[in-house]
Design brief:
The complex is a heterodimer of chains A (112) and B (111).
Chain A lengths: L4 E3 L2 E4 L5 E6 L6 E8 L3 E9 L2 E4 L8 E7 L2 E6 L8 E8 L6 E2 L3 E5 L1
Parallel strand pairs in A: 2-11
Antiparallel strand pairs in A: 1-3, 3-8, 4-5, 4-9, 5-6, 7-8, 9-10, 9-11
Chain B lengths: L9 E5 L4 E6 L7 E7 L6 E7 L4 E3 L3 E6 L4 E6 L8 E10 L2 E4 L3 E6 L1
Parallel strand pairs in B: 1-10
Antiparallel strand pairs in B: 2-7, 3-4, 3-8, 5-6, 6-7, 8-9, 8-10
Classes of the chains: A mainly beta (112), B mainly beta (111).
Chain lengths: 112, 111
Amino acid sequence: DAGVIQSPRHEVTEMGQEVTLRCKPISGHNSLFWYRQTMMRGLELLIYFNNNVPIDDSGMPEDRFSAKMPNASFSTLKIQPSEPRDSAVYFCASSKGPLPPFFGPGTRLTVL
Amino acid sequence: GESVGLHLPTLSVQEGDNSIINCAYSNSASDYFIWYKQESGKGPQFIIDIRSNMDKRQGQRVTVLLNKTVKHLSLQIAATQPGDSAVYFCAENPRINDMRFGAGTRLTVKP
C-alpha cells in the first residue's frame, strides 16, 4: 500500500489566492482527518470525516476554510482567500475503525 | 513533558542509553493514547498505543506506561539509536476519532 497520499507537497501562493490541498486515504480506511501543524500551535485537528461524512469541523479556523470528501478515496481542503497566517504544514491522515490514524507526508503551505 | 508555544521540551541522550519521554494529558475521559514519532520533513508515524484498561504495554524496544491517577503517560525507548532522533508526540482520544496531540518532545541522540 502506498500509504496516505497528499498533493502538492509544497505550495507557495500569494495572499488572497485560493489554495486547494488534496488527499487520497489508504484504501479501506473509513475515517479521514485533516490536521494543521505550526510551531506556535502544534498539531491541530481541523476536521474529520467518517464514511465520507463530515463529523466534526469545530477545528476549522474560519469560513475561509472548507473541506470535502466526495468519495472514499479523495478529500480536499480549500482555503479561500488565503492569508499569511495560514502558512503551515497540513497533514491528512486516515484510519480504519478504532485503529490509530496513519499520516500522509504533509503539504507545506506558504502564503506570501 | 508538555508545553505550548515556540519552545519544545528537549531530551538529549547518549547512543545506547535508555530514553524516557513524558507526557501529561488533559482529559480524564480519554481512554486511548498513542505515541507518534515525527522526523524532520515527514508526517507523524505511529509507534505504540495503549488503552485505559492497561497501565503498561511493550513493543519492540519501546514501552508505554500509563498512570491514570495523575494523567501521565511515558514512552521508554531502550538502547536509543541515532535513528530515534525525532520529535515525539503523545495523543489522547477523549472521544472516538477525536485525537488530540500534545506539543511534543524533541529527542536528540548523541553518537
